[in-house]
Structure formats: C-alpha cells, structure tokens
C-alpha cells in the first residue's frame, strides 16, 4: 500500500494549483515525497506520461476532439485513484 501524505506534503501539493505549470510541478513534488517507494514513483510517472501524451492530441481538430475527451476522462479517473491512495485532499 502507498504511504499517506503528511499534512505538510498535502499543503505543498495544493500550492501547485496556483502555478503556471502546476500539474508538472505536482508530479515533480509527488516524486520527491515518494522517492523511497519505487511503485509510487512509477504511478506518478505513469500519470505524467498519460497527461503529456493527452496534451499532444490536436483537440481543436473535430475528429480528434472525441479522442481527446475520452483520454482526459481516463486520465482524471486514474488520477483520482492515485490521489485517493496518497490520501490527498483538495481542501
């Protein structure tokens, strides 16, 4: 099982919301917090890879929009699972 984040770690991750590149900073910080847990780091890396690849879908192209939305939905579901396992809360 994944170690739950401390209150201070949660506060540090919440701060990413207000940053220009907050999502990437979130992944970077989460990797640092879990550096002693290779499985957790692998999950964070997987989420970053999914997010990065979804951002490369040209969603302004009408045909690709459906693929973009479906991929983002999958990303959010998997991200919710990761956040829950971390013990992350948004408030």
Would you write up a description of this structure?
This protein has 91 residues and is mainly α. It is 69% helix and 0% strand. It has 4 helices and no strands. It starts with 6 loop residues before the first helix and ends in a 5-residue tail after the last helix.
Mean pLDDT, as a whole number? 93
Helix and strand run:
HHHH
Low-confidence stretches: none
Indicate the percent of residues in helices.
Answer: 55-70%
The rounded distance between the terminal residues' Cα atoms is 23 Å
Q: What is the strand content?
A: under 5%
Count of alpha/pi helices: 4
Main beta sheet? none
Total strand segments:
0
Summing up helix and strand content along with how strands pair, one would put the structural category as: mainly alpha
Task: Give the C-alpha Rg.
Answer: 14 Å
Shape: elongated
Helix-strand layout with pairing:
Layout (H helix, E strand, L loop, with lengths): L6 H8 L7 H12 L4 H18 L6 H25 L5
Keywords:
4 helices; 91 residues; single chain; mainly alpha
In short:
This protein is mostly helical. Helices cover 69% and strands 0% of the residues. It has helices at residues 7-14, 22-33, 38-55, 62-86.
């Amino acid at each position: 099982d994944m170690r739950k984040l401390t209150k201070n770690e949660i506060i540090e991750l919440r701060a990413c919301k207000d940053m220009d590149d907050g999502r990437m900073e979130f992944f970077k910080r989460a990797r640092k917090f879990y550096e002693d847990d290779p499985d957790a780091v692998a999950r964070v890396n997987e989420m970053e890879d999914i997010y990065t690849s979804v951002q490369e879908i040209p969603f302004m192209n009408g045909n690709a929009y459906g693929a973009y939305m479906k991929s983002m939905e999958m990303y959010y579901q998997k991200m919710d699972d990761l956040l829950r396992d971390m013990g992350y809360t948004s408030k």
